[in-house]
Design goal:
Blueprint lengths: L17 H9 L6 H6 L7 E2 L9 E2 L10 E6 L5 E9 L4 E10 L4 H10 L5 E4 L15 H7 L3 E4 L4 H13 L3 E4 L3 H7 L3 E2 L11 H11 L14 H8 L9
Length: about 250
């Protein structure tokens, strides 16, 4: 007996309109959509954001002074990452303009790097920083960073809701990333789920910082001081990435 396999997707069935397909697709999390809509076999793991990086990455440009800015901050000894965003409110588009990405350094080093981007900005920090102890002096990391003159708010750390919020921006063209954010791009391409559908919690510091920015940081985004164009020129000219590895 001869056997053959046919892969059928929603586009192959006449009873589903384009509108119905879009509505159905929006109801499923990103990691399930290829399996649901295209019949692509799902092995229990896969990338979390199925959006071609070419749709996200753009060349840096000078940020208009009327775009508010903020950052997301994921802290830890192994790696501390911060992602800065500028919000084009007219088009509801968030631009990730720069990153800080460094491991095995004390909070003072990270705080100095963050303040150089503009100490007037508010950061949405990983709320688990409340419970992380700095082994050197036993101080709470949240308190320590605030003592270093960072303005911080607790981020909404709802993982699935945050992933969906980021994905909706990506898929609708409302999240763009400067090409200078090389660590963000590296993490983006390996950000995935395990065989049980759980987010793999490794090499995801910039991804977490992005979630904090989208879920919370944008609510606290502020305009730069009128005489402060440091962030604009910094974002345009360098998009500096500080990296020491994991």
């Amino acid at each position: 007996m001869t056997r053959f396999c046919v892969q059928i997707g929603w586009q192959d069935v006449p009873h589903l309109s384009k509108k119905q397909q879009d509505e159905l697709l929006d109801a499923f999390p990103p990691h399930e959509r290829d399996a649901r809509a295209k019949g692509v076999p799902m092995l229990g793991s896969g990338r979390i954001y199925p959006v071609d990086e070419k749709q996200l990455i753009i060349d840096p440009f000078s940020i208009p002074s009327y775009w508010p800015r903020a950052y997301g901050l994921d802290v830890g000894w192994k790696c501390t990452a911060a992602m800065w965003g500028a919000w084009d409110r007219d088009n509801d588009t968030l631009y990730l303009t720069s990153e800080h990405y460094m491991g095995q350094q004390p909070p003072q080093v990270h705080a100095d790097a963050i303040k150089r981007r503009g100490d007037w900005m508010t950061g949405a920090i990983d709320p688990s920083a409340h419970g992380v102890i700095n082994h050197k002096d036993g101080e709470n990391l949240m308190q320590e960073y605030r003592a270093l003159d960072l303005t911080l708010v607790n981020a909404d750390n709802s993982v699935e809701a945050g992933i969906m919020a980021c994905y909706r921006r990506m898929s609708s063209g409302r999240l763009k990333v400067f090409s200078t954010c090389v660590n963000w791009l590296r993490e983006y391409n390996i950000y995935r789920r395990d065989e049980k559908g759980k987010v793999v919690k490794e090499n995801d510091h910039a991804m977490d910082a992005t979630r904090y920015l989208v879920m919370t940081g944008m609510q606290h985004a502020a305009l730069p001081p009128q005489d402060d164009d440091e962030t604009d020129s910094w974002s345009r000219d360098r998009g500096r990435s500080l990296t020491t590895g994991y």
